[in-house]
Design a protein that fits this description.
445 residues
C-alpha cells in the first residue's frame, strides 16, 4: 500500500512553492538592480511576499514593454455631433469642408512604408501610399525590396498570395518570379525562354531609424540625398520604448509647417497636458504653467533638403521657474516626410523621437512617432514623453482636420517664418507632381 502524500502544516510551504518563491525573489531583484539582488540573497519571500513580488514583477514587465497606441482616423480631431457616430462625423467633415487651392499632394522624397520589425524574412506585405500600390518583401538574406504590386503579366497583386523565393518574389497567379534588386523576370515555369523586356518596376528603398522607407519622385528620378542614420540607434545604445500612430485628414504640408508657426506654440500647446486634447476645454488658466521658446531655420548647402527647429520647454509654477524640469528638443526635418526630434535633459537622459508622415491619400496622412531612449533610463520616462507628444499632436489634429488650406494667407510680420517655410518646402514639388484635381479625375479616386 503506497503512502499518501502529506500536506505541509499550516503556515508552512512545500519545497515546490519554496523554489517558486525564491525564483520570484531573484527575478524581482534582477529587475530592481544590483542593490536589490544583494538584498535578495539575504532573505527569502514568504507566501504573502511571493504574491506581492509576483504582482510587482508583472507591473515591472508591463512597464518595460514598449508603449503601443493606435488611433483610427475618426477617433481624434472632430467635435462630436448628437446622433452621429465618430465615423459619420469624420466622413461628413471630410466631404463638406473647403479644400482651398492646395499644392501638389505627393511631394518628392523618402517616406516610411513599414517598421522594420513588421517584415520578417520571407514575408511579403502590400502598402497603398503616394497614389501607388507597393509590394514590400524581405528576401531570405534579410534585404528589403519594394516593387510595384501588380504583375506586368496579367495584373495579379504580388502582395496577395505572392511568396519569396531566394531574392525573388513569385506571382501567385502563374508563378512568374521577379528579382528584387533588378526587377527582371527570373523564371516563367511554363515558358522555354524568359523575354528580356519582362521586368517589374523596382522602387529605391532602404532601412533607417527602424523604418522601411521608399524614395518617391513623380519623374522617376533617382534619390538625390540619403536619410541619415542615428548613431545611437545603429549601435543599439538607445532602445525602442514606444510607438504611436495617428491619421490626419489634411494636406501633408500642413504638418511640417507647424515648425515655422511660432505663434501657435504658446497658444495651442501652452496649456498643460492635463487639460486634454479637446480644444473647447483646453484654455483653462488653472493648467497654464508651460512656456515655450521656438526657433526654425533651413539648412545651407549641401543639406538644403533639411531644416532645423530648436524648442525649449520651461515649467513655471506660481510664477517661479523650475530649471530642473526644463526639456530641450532639437528637431531636424529631413525631406518632406521625416523628422528626428533629439531629446536632452540633465537628469532624464537623452533619446530621439522619429516622426514619419506618409500620404495614404491626397488628404489622408499616416503620422507615426517612435521613441528611442537610453536603455539605463527607466522605461516609464520615455513612455511619458511619447504620451505627452501624442497629446500635443492630437491638439494639432483637431486644427488640421477642420481647416482650409490657404495658398495666400493673411500674415503679419511676426509670421514671416511661415512664408519662408513654404518657399523651402516648395523644393519637393516639380512640374509633373500630382495635383488634387488630377488625382480626383483618375479611376482610383
Amino acid at each position: 500500500m503506497s503512502a499518501r502524500p502529506t500536506r505541509p502544516p499550516p503556515g508552512r510551504v512545500g519545497p515546490g512553492t519554496r523554489r517558486l518563491m525564491d525564483l520570484l525573489g531573484w527575478a524581482l531583484a534582477g529587475l530592481l538592480g544590483g542593490a536589490a539582488a544583494a538584498a535578495a540573497g539575504a532573505f527569502t519571500l514568504g507566501p504573502a511576499g511571493a504574491t506581492l513580488a509576483a504582482l510587482l514583477l508583472l507591473l515591472l514587465v508591463l512597464l518595460q514593454r514598449p508603449l503601443r497606441r493606435f488611433c483610427p482616423p475618426e477617433r481624434v480631431g472632430y467635435v462630436p455631433e448628437a446622433g452621429w457616430s465618430r465615423a459619420q462625423t469624420a466622413h461628413r467633415v471630410r466631404r463638406s469642408r473647403r479644400k482651398g487651392q492646395m499644392p501638389p499632394v505627393y511631394p518628392n522624397g523618402w517616406f516610411r512604408l513599414l517598421d522594420s520589425a513588421q517584415l520578417a524574412r520571407g514575408e511579403v506585405r502590400g502598402v497603398a501610399a503616394l497614389g501607388e500600390q507597393f509590394a514590400v518583401f524581405r528576401d531570405l538574406d534579410g534585404k528589403v525590396h519594394v516593387v510595384d504590386a501588380y504583375c506586368p503579366h496579367l495584373g495579379a497583386n504580388l502582395a496577395v498570395g505572392g511568396r519569396v523565393v531566394d531574392s525573388c518574389i513569385e506571382c501567385p497567379f502563374h508563378g512568374w518570379q521577379f528579382h528584387g534588386e533588378s526587377g527582371k523576370c527570373f523564371k516563367i515555369p511554363y515558358a522555354e525562354k524568359v523575354p528580356e523586356f519582362a521586368k517589374i518596376k523596382v522602387w529605391p528603398s532602404c532601412e533607417a531609424g527602424g523604418m522601411i522607407i521608399v524614395w518617391y519622385h513623380c519623374d522617376s528620378i533617382e534619390p538625390t540625398w540619403c536619410v541619415p542614420e542615428q548613431e545611437e540607434l545603429r549601435s543599439c545604445q538607445w532602445v525602442l520604448r514606444g510607438t504611436t500612430e495617428h491619421f490626419v485628414n489634411a494636406h501633408i504640408q500642413e504638418i511640417p509647417e507647424n515648425a515655422a508657426d511660432v505663434a501657435h506654440l504658446s497658444f495651442l500647446h501652452g496649456p498643460s497636458l492635463m487639460s486634454g486634447v479637446d480644444l473647447r476645454f483646453t484654455r483653462s488658466a488653472f493648467w497654464t504653467f508651460f512656456q515655450h521658446h521656438w526657433q526654425w531655420h533651413p539648412e545651407p548647402e549641401p543639406n538644403t533638403h533639411c531644416s532645423q527647429m530648436l524648442v525649449k520647454h520651461k515649467v513655471m509654477l506660481c510664477g517661479r521657474h523650475f530649471p530642473l524640469l526644463d526639456l530641450t528638443v532639437s528637431a531636424r526635418q529631413v525631406g518632406p516626410g521625416l523628422v528626428f526630434l533629439l531629446l536632452k535633459h540633465p537628469f532624464l537622459g537623452r533619446g530621439v523621437i522619429v516622426q514619419s508622415v506618409t500620404p495614404l491619400e491626397p488628404l489622408l496622412q499616416h503620422v507615426v512617432h517612435r521613441v528611442y531612449y537610453q536603455h539605463n533610463i527607466p522605461a516609464f520616462i520615455p513612455k511619458f514623453i511619447l504620451w505627452a507628444e501624442s497629446v500635443q499632436i492630437e491638439r494639432d489634429i483637431m486644427i488640421w482636420n477642420n481647416k482650409q488650406y490657404l495658398s495666400k494667407p493673411l500674415l503679419v510680420k511676426e509670421d514671416a517664418a511661415i512664408q519662408r517655410h513654404r518657399r523651402w518646402y516648395s523644393q519637393f514639388y516639380s512640374k509633373n507632381s500630382v495635383t488634387f484635381q488630377r488625382h480626383r479625375e483618375t479611376l482610383e479616386w
